[in-house]
């Protein structure tokens, strides 16, 4: 069937137009016409206007899987974005950076950079219906960015699953009439273990050690000596054997991930009905319980106090920018992968606004659950909030469990809390692994045909590497991976991604793609953010991350120089995919220097224009368009 598209329609997409306004009528022999997501598929060719040829998929091609229901996609995105950092990092950052004043830069960066990047990735994945690597058929030279984010997602899986395994271990340990971290006198306790009730304000002020830094309380010793066995390691050079209890917990986590993901989004989209919603139920219950505790209001007042003078400190703005970026989860390839399974006409603009807002509101709300309990801890020990306030594992595996152990019905509260941590971690890890699977199976069809086997290989591979993190000195390996695997590298990756979409592909063409999906074009605000504000924001965060880089430590232990070199090797191993693939692509295409460059930066469906000498990117109009 020959179809003539009116020349007024500019074609920049990889997916055909949803409508044709002018059709040249010709005699045809109709064999099959099928419509999917507003796109017609037939056995015969569609011939576009002279400027562009639009490739289509044959009806014999394998149809891409889609989410069972819209809510499956929304819960998956929310489940990925709302993770452990929302609980153990944001509340403390807010508290130390001026309380309510911190919300000013945080909200500003959300609006001018966080949401635009979130929206861009959802639209990019939904329109092209590809994973993080093959989505770059819009500008082939940037395909290395896709491999970069896939590798980073793999690195994060090496250690993130270990944190989930810790939560599972604590969950199992909670099924006891008395929580094991309540008292001293257990096999793992040291002779120096001391009852927390004996640590009063006078003692703390005497040696200038904050309560949150005490390593001789039952809860602290249970975490470091009973769970990690950190006392049996002298440093990262002395890892020791894996702890079999943690190995079993890690194995359970990996099997959950495999059986959830092996059959695609039809299965994982149902699992998130539990993993994405349960944390909200538990969080609400914990807030209600927390505000009834003595001292809770002091903790909440400390959390919400407004110190506008803190905004004069550049660190506050850097913390806000970094937190909003990591909180939303842009750049890991997950949003692109999830959106690629949407229906073509799905309103991803509304989804971006809704899910990013829910994520940030969750971070703020979780602070009430955390600081109500920290206020209770400070009240019990007669100290200030700053003496018990902390972040990271120290908060969720030491301070909070200790507070829970003193409550009536402590077993129930402990089970509820660690069940929340488990579900928060599982769906975030599911997202990261789905980004790896989708990104590579879309690129290598043999992997798509053997998705179950590839999913197993990916899950088992992360398990094997993660074994180094469950050894006696595993916390040092985990700290190294956490610091270097997704720090500067992921910021660099998203910066290049934003430049590739906004400048090389073009904001105007990207906006036209969105218009074809949803029927309306993004406003000027979004286009300006994509082209100028978001890249500038990312450049600022990249520079800040490098400037703030300090010597790597874990408590009082300082990592040796060779460990930092390994860390930078991990960082560079993912970043180098960007220049390496660009060089490879340039050298493998044919033609003169100018033709090679044109083929590298022109969408694959417009490569015939290069032969005609009609290269959009070689014109000033392309770079000035908004």
Strand and helix layout:
Layout (H helix, E strand, L loop, with lengths): L32 E4 L2 E4 L27 H12 L2 H5 L1 H7 L6 H26 L14 H31 L27 H7 L10 H10 L16 H18 L3 H11 L2 H13 L5 H9 L9 H15 L5 H6 L8 H34 L3 H4 L4 H13 L4 H34 L1 H5 L1 H16 L7 H11 L3 H31 L5 H24 L5 E2 L2 E2 L2 H15 L1 H12 L4 H9 L5 H5 L8 H5 L2
Antiparallel strand pairs: 1-2, 3-4
Helix pairs in contact: 1-9, 1-14, 1-17, 4-12, 4-14, 4-21, 4-22, 5-8, 5-17, 5-19, 5-20, 5-21, 5-24, 7-16, 8-17, 8-19, 9-17, 10-14, 10-17, 11-14, 14-16, 17-19, 20-23, 21-22, 21-23, 24-25
Detailed description of the structure:
The protein is globular and about 80 Å long. The chain has 27 helices and four strands. It has helices at about 70-80, 85-90, 90-95, 105-130, 145-175, 200-205, 220-225, 245-260, 265-275, 280-290, 295-305, 315-330, 335-340, 350-380, 385-390, 395-405, 410-445, 445-450, 450-465, 475-485, 490-520, 525-545, 560-575, 575-590, 595-600, 605-610, 620-625, and strands spanning about 35, 40, 555, 555-560. A two-stranded antiparallel ribbon has the order 1-2. Strands 3-4 form a two-stranded antiparallel sheet. The protein is mainly α.
Determine Rg (CA atoms, Å).
26 Å
Structural class, by secondary structure, is mainly alpha
Total strands:
4
How much of the residues is beta strand, in percent? under 5%
What percent of the residues sit in helical stretches (DSSP H or I)?
55-70%
Coarse shape: globular
Describe the strand arrangement of the main beta sheet, using strand numbers.
Answer: 1-2
Helix segment tally: 27
* Overall pLDDT: 88
């Amino acid at each position: 069937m020959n179809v003539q598209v009116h020349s007024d329609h500019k074609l920049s997409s990889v997916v055909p137009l949803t409508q044709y306004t002018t059709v040249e009528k010709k005699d045809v022999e109709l064999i099959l016409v099928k419509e999917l997501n507003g796109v017609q598929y037939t056995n015969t060719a569609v011939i576009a206007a002279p400027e562009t040829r639009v490739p289509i998929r044959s009806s014999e091609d394998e149809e891409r899987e889609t989410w069972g229901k819209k809510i499956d996609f929304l819960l998956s995105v929310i489940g990925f974005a709302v993770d452990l950092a929302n609980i153990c990092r944001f509340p403390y950052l807010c508290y130390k950076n001026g309380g309510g004043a911190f919300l000013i830069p945080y909200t500003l960066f959300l609006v001018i950079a966080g949401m635009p990047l979130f929206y861009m990735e959802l639209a990019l994945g939904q329109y092209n219906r590809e994973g993080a690597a093959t989505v770059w058929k819009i500008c082939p030279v940037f395909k290395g960015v896709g491999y970069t984010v896939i590798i980073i997602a793999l690195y994060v899986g090496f250690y993130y699953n270990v944190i989930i395994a810790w939560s599972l271990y604590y969950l199992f340990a909670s099924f006891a009439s008395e929580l094991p971290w309540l008292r001293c006198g257990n096999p793992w306790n040291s002779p120096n273990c001391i009852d927390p009730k004996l640590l009063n304000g006078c003692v703390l002020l005497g040696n200038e050690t904050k309560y949150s830094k005490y390593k001789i309380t039952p809860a602290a010793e249970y975490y470091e000596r009973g769970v990690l066995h950190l006392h049996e390691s002298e440093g990262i050079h002395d890892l020791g054997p894996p702890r079999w209890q943690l190995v079993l917990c890690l194995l359970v986590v990996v099997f959950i991930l495999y059986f959830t993901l092996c059959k695609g989004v039809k299965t994982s989209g149902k699992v998130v009905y539990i993993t994405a919603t349960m944390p909200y139920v538990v969080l609400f219950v914990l807030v209600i319980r927390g505000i009834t505790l003595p001292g809770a209001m002091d903790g909440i007042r400390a959390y919400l106090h407004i110190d506008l003078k803190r905004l004069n400190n550049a660190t506050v703005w850097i913390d806000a920018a970094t937190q909003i970026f990591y909180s939303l989860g842009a750049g890991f390839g997950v949003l692109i992968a999830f959106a690629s399974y949407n229906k073509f006409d799905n309103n991803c603009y509304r989804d971006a606004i809704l899910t990013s807002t829910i994520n940030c509101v969750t971070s703020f709300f979780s602070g009430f659950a955390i600081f109500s309990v920290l206020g209770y801890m400070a009240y019990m020990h007669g100290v200030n909030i700053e003496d018990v306030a902390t972040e990271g594992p120290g908060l969720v595996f030491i301070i909070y469990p200790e507070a829970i152990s003193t409550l009536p019905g402590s077993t129930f509260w402990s089970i509820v809390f660690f069940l929340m941590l488990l579900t928060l971690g599982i769906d975030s890890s599911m997202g990261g692994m789905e980004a790896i699977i989708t990104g590579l199976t879309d690129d290598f069809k043999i992997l798509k045909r053997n998705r179950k086997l590839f999913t197993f290989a990916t899950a088992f591979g992360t398990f094997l590497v993660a074994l180094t993190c469950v050894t006696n000195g595993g916390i040092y390996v985990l700290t190294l991976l956490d610091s270097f695997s997704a720090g500067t590298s992921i910021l660099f990756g998203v910066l290049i991604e934003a430049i590739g979409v906004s400048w090389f592909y073009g904001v105007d063409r990207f906006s036209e793609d969105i218009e074809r999906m949803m029927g309306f074009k993004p406003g000027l605000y979004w286009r300006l953010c994509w082209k100028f504000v978001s890249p500038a924001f990312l450049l600022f965060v990249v520079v800040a991350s490098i400037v703030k880089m300090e010597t790597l430590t874990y408590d009082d232990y300082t990592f040796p120089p060779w460990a930092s070199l390994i860390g930078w090797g991990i960082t560079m191993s993912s970043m180098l995919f960007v220049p390496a693939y660009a060089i490879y692509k340039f050298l493998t295409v044919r033609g003169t220097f100018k033709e090679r460059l044109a083929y590298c930066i022109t969408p694959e469906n417009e490569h015939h224009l290069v032969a005609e000498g009609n290269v959009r990117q070689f014109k000033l109009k392309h770079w000035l368009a908004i």
